[in-house]
């Protein structure tokens, strides 16, 4: 096993193809559809109540239904591998951008925002090979503020970036629960397994140990369940089990005094996406409330936010991220940490679909939101990751 960090050993990423980065075909976690329940995101016209063909996936000919169909993944990111890539040439461009008095930030943007993560790792290795200096240290010494944070985030492997974000969410006074929920609710089993490996190697403790030491109660149990990376990832939908799960959720919440949080945890953290979409639709037939409304009525605090995030991510991952981006920029002040994390982690995965969801949900483009909320080189870099003003 190669040591997780930047740059990786020659030959590519550690542990590929199990976790990050995704193959050229797309991202293993990008199996999402539009929600049908009124309590969730606005549904797209003509959607199947059990979910549409996942965003970023194209159905094969003669598809015989959602539950048993196969999909051909399509890359839905705005940042892709550059054609005619030359790592040494890019390393030289970055060296000239930082050499002498002043820094050419635009040159840095042109390189880091238009190369894939794999190519950026190769640039870092070529930089050290050619000049005997660590590219990350050089960038740190030349840049500052949110621009620096975004560039350095782009230079980490996807898995190390996720692991580092989770460590920072846990360490010190207070916990960034929303960061933990966001990452664990949206990553595939393979990605979570890789995050666990990198986290242990980088920080000498397991992610589960740190979660247990920093959280408590049913919220801790939710995160521990998610960090196992053991969700069923098939497309199977058993109608008998769908009805049973919907009834069990009702009996664990609205249908009794008090709440059996463990039942919600067991169903929401183990069943596959297609099955749970069917469960959420069936639940509306069993109960007068949407599942998200029930969670809000039965739970509170971090547990409520965590459970709702899991449901939203299962229903529409891109809608979930669009909402997170909107909340990071609306009102006074900007949650730059969340903004940077999502723009960096999704720019090679499904940013095209996040942009579309953002426009559909809020009537304004993500590009224009970033333009209005950020400034300077930081804004220029984020806009490159966003891709276009549509």
Strand runs, count: 2
Please state the structural category.
Answer: mainly alpha
Q: What's the shape?
A: elongated
Low-confidence stretches: 1-40, 42-72
Q: Going across the biggest sheet, name each strand in turn.
A: 1-2
Largest sheet: 2 strands, antiparallel
Average pLDDT confidence is 85
**Can you count the helices?**
20
* SSE string, helices as H and strands as E: EEHHHHHHHHHHHHHHHHHHHH
CA gyration radius, whole angstroms:
21 Å
How far the N terminus sits from the C terminus, by CA atoms, comes to: 42 Å
Percentage of residues assigned to helices = 55-70%
**Proportion of residues in β-strands:** under 5%
Give me some keywords for this one.
single chain, about 400 residues, mainly alpha, two-stranded antiparallel sheet, 2 strands, elongated, disordered N terminus
What features would you describe in this structure?
With 390 residues, the chain is mainly alpha-helical. The protein is 58% helix and 2% strand. It has 20 helices and two strands. The chain has helices spanning 87-98, 105-112, 117-131, 135-142, 145-155, 158-170, 177-186, 189-203, 207-214, 217-227, 239-252, 261-270, 273-286, 291-298, 301-315, 317-329, 336-346, 351-362, 366-373, 376-386; strands spanning 57-59, 71-73. The protein has a two-stranded antiparallel sheet with strand order 1-2. The protein is elongated and about 70 Å long. It starts with 56 loop residues before the first strand and ends with a helix.
